[in-house]
């Protein structure tokens, strides 16, 4: 089963961060409390670290005046219940709640951010319960896997809609910590990075935010390391025969120019339809230091040469070993479909891949300024 949305809202801060201590006040009333004390804490995965506590009097009143190591995301712990708090320098937050049903009755004065986090945390917790129940149901009766998966797909779509609403309503706010805790960076790198950038711009002094940032950078590096054509990587060099079957061309011979490596074939309909756009782009930028290397996946030399002439591919760099899908250069670049392009800078670094039509035109306009 491809399980959707196994998410935990537990935030784990680790590592060593420079301390930027803050003074805060958290007070209020938790009536009907089943415990005699409350704590300001952080979750470090396997344990809670407590920074201070306050007794709760008979009416439910409590008061914490603390010096904390950093502005950050904290919990006000009431027994087994956790109330989410964003605490900054000189925060003065009042919390009012019913100890028998804190999830349903908990109000805040002095921190709209904490209120927003707690409101969404209930949605997140309900989704997590459904997720756990789905796994349990499938383990108990594997024959229900498809039924459960179909149901959970619909439920995930509902949860994701609520998550997107939460993100939209809290742009550039520290509460986006909770959004990232409910997302998988590798499933949607662009969205995750956008939210992380917002969060970092407004709450970078938070060790929790720094941890998110550090973890994301590691994930990006891992993915980029696995992708040899990631932007900034040096494109693999190659040497291949040209149309005369005597002379050869090395990719590295073209250093100093902006190079588009264009994988195509005479038998490829989409390639042939794209060729007029490629020709137009070449004509516009050829005098600015732009050139094209066309790598053909043909097996018939005459059909390949005829297509070059018919489509007016006037640049001089046409190569092929006439190996079709077994082309050495295509295998080197792990080409699985054509057309496929790789745009390189003047030193042979990858700029972007699979640019065609307006997207290629726009990128070259950015590079050459016209």
Please provide a written account of the structure:
By secondary structure, the protein is α+β, with helices and mostly antiparallel strands. It folds into 2 domains: 1-226, no CATH class; 239-368, Glutaredoxin, CATH 3.40.30.10. The protein has 9 helices and 15 strands. It has helices at residues 112-140, 145-169, 176-181, 189-203, 207-226, 269-285, 301-310, 328-332, 357-368, and strands at 22-31, 37-43, 48-55, 61-68, 72-78, 81-87, 92-98, 106-109, 239-241, 248-250, 258-264, 290-296, 317-319, 340-344, 350-353. It has a 5-stranded mixed sheet, covered by helices on one side. Strands 4-1-7-8 form a 4-stranded mixed sheet, with helices on one face. The longest helix is centred in the middle third of the chain and has 29 residues, at 112-140. It is elongated and about 95 Å long.
Across the major sheet, the strand order is 13-12-11-14-15
Shape: elongated
Largest sheet geometry = 5 strands, mixed
Number of helices in the DSSP assignment: 9
* Structural class by secondary-structure content: alpha+beta
Mean pLDDT: 92
Radius of gyration: 29 Å
Total DSSP E strands: 15
Oligomer: single chain
Unreliable stretches covering 5 or more consecutive residues: 1-16
Number of domains: 2
- What portion of residues is helical? 25-40%
Helix-strand pattern: EEEEEEEEHHHHHEEEHEHEHEEH
How far from one another are the termini? Answer: 51 Å
Report the β-strand fraction as a percent range.
15-25%
């Amino acid at each position: 089963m491809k399980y959707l949305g196994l998410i935990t809202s537990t935030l784990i801060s680790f590592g060593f961060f420079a301390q930027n201590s803050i003074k805060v006040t958290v007070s209020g009333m938790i009536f009907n409390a089943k415990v005699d004390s409350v704590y300001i804490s952080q979750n470090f995965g396997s344990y809670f670290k407590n920074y201070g506590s306050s007794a709760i009097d008979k009416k439910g009143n409590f008061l914490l005046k603390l010096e904390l190591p950093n502005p950050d995301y904290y919990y006000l712990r009431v027994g087994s219940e956790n109330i989410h708090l964003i605490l900054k320098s000189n925060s003065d937050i009042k919390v009012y709640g019913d100890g028998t049903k804190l999830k349903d009755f908990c109000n805040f004065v002095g921190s709209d951010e904490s209120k927003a986090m707690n409101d969404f945390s209930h949605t997140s917790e309900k989704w997590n319960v459904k997720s756990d129940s789905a796994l349990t149901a499938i383990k108990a009766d594997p024959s229900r896997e498809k039924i459960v998966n179909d149901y959970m797909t619909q439920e995930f779509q509902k949860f994701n809609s609520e998550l997107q609403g939460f993100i939209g309503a809290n742009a550039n706010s520290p509460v986006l910590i909770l959004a990232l805790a409910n997302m998988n960076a590798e499933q949607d790198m662009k969205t995750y990075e956008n939210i992380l950038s917002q969060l970092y711009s407004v709450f970078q002094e938070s060790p929790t935010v720094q941890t998110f940032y550090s973890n994301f950078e590691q994930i990006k590096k891992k993915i980029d390391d696995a992708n040899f054509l990631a932007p900034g990587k040096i494109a693999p060099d190659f040497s291949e025969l040209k149309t005369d079957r005597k002379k050869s061309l090395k990719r590295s011979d073209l250093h100093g120019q902006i190079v588009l490596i264009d994988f195509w074939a005479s038998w490829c309909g989409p390639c042939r339809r794209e060729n007029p756009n490629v020709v137009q782009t070449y004509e516009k930028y050829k005098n600015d230091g732009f050139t094209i290397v066309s790598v053909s996946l043909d097996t018939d030399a005459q059909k390949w040469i005829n297509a070059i002439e018919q489509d007016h591919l006037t640049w001089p760099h046409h190569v092929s070993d006439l190996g079709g899908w077994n082309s050495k250069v295509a295998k080197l670049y792990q080409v699985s479909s054509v057309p496929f392009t790789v745009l390189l800078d003047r030193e042979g670094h990858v700029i972007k891949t699979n640019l065609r039509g307006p997207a290629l035109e726009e990128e070259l306009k950015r590079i050459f300024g016209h």
